[in-house]
Amino acid sequence: MTGDEFAYLRRFLRKRSGLDLGADKQYLVESRLAPLWRDAGLPSLQALVRRLIGAEHGPLGQAVVEAMATHETMFFRDKAVFETLRSAVLPKLIAARSRTRRLRLWSAAASSGQEAYSLAMMLADMAPALAGWKVSILGTDLSAAAVERARAATYSQFEVQRGLPIRMLLRHFTQGQAGWTASAELRAAVEFRTLNLLHDLGSLGTFDLVLCRNLLIYLDGPTRTRLLTGLAGRLAPDGVLLLGSAESAAGWCDALVPDPVARGFSVRRPGDVLPLKQAG
Questions:
Q1: CATH number for the domain including 94?
Q2: Of 31, 114, 118, 253, which residue has the fewest beta carbons closer than 10 angstroms?
Q3: Average pLDDT for residues 197-210, to the nearest whole number?
Q4: Does residue 233 form part of some domain?
Q5: Residue 276 pLDDT > 60
Q6: Assigned domain for 280 exists
Q7: Is 248 within the bounds of a domain?
Q8: How far apart are CA 191 and CA 113, in angstroms?
Q9: What is the residue range of 42's domain?
Q10: pLDDT at 280 over 50
């Protein structure tokens, strides 16, 4: 792959997904796109790039974006975060919603679904406090393949061993030849959709809790601001946003400030007026 072809792919990926590939990541592009050009019956990566030019918004463009996306995830990733959710964040939100008895949660970069199902299992443990409530969990991801896998909710032995307590595994999953499949009840608790977070998010409505972890680290500065502004606009006035442990809204989005109670979480700046329109 020539330098010009790599530069084109970097521009294409930044425009379509916000992915900010460093100049030293050519090897990553070549390794992740190799199966794509081979499956398409093309002779080389250069041939794939030539076909992509002029057809960026078609199926090939989407396939390139999905091939370059990182889908690392696991059940209950970062136990301290989920303990804070269980002991502080969710009880506070439940108390604040005692009159409306409605709760909306969003896993905004859901990948293959483990994070969203972790939320659903946690809320199942809190069922007595939520009796008669309308609780909804939305999981979205840029990758259609990841979303289909999340809907199927079948995971390998390795995947369920990464963070999923044995009590929850036996309660919510059944083992079969293909792996461990979530129960119908657990799958029904989460709705999954394909969604590009850089598009307008206004149609989603507002959420009490949004999780968007370990995505900002792959984005350039302007795209971080654009994404965080969009997420802030989807938060209820007293809603809570969770980013990755190495991520922060500070310096990127003035609409968000650290949660004064839950360490590592963010809330809307007091006095901000909804809705916030996503830039771009």
A1: 3.40.50.150
A2: 31
A3: 94
A4: yes
A5: no
A6: no
A7: yes
A8: 10
A9: 3-68
A10: no
- Domain assignment present for residue 84? The answer is yes
pLDDT tops 90 at residue 186: yes
- Flag whether pLDDT at 277 surpasses 80: no
Q: What is the CATH number of the domain that holds 16?
A: 1.10.155
Domain end residue (candidates: 26, 49, 68):
68
State the pTM of this model: 0.84
* Token representation of residue 17: 């997904």
- From 68, 99, 115, give the residue that closes a domain: 68
**The predicted structure's pLDDT at residue 279:** 44
Q: Give the pLDDT confidence of 126-173 residue by residue, as tens digits.
A: 999 999 999 999 999 988 989 999 999 999 999 999 999 999 999 999
Average pLDDT, the chain: 90
DSSP string, the chain: --HHHHHHHHHHHHHHH-B---TT-HHHHHHHHHHHHHHTT-S-HHHHHHHHTT-TTSHHHHHHHHHH------TT-SHHHHHHIIIIIHHHHHHHTTTT-EEEEEETT-TTSHHHHHHHHHHHHTGGGGTT-EEEEEEEES-HHHHHHHHHTEE-HHHHHTT--HHHHHHHEEEETTEEEE-HHHHHTEEEEE--TTS--GGG--EEEEE--S-GGGB-HHHHHHHHHHHHHTEEEEEEEE--TT---TTT-TTEEE-SSSTTEEEEPTTPPSPPPPP-
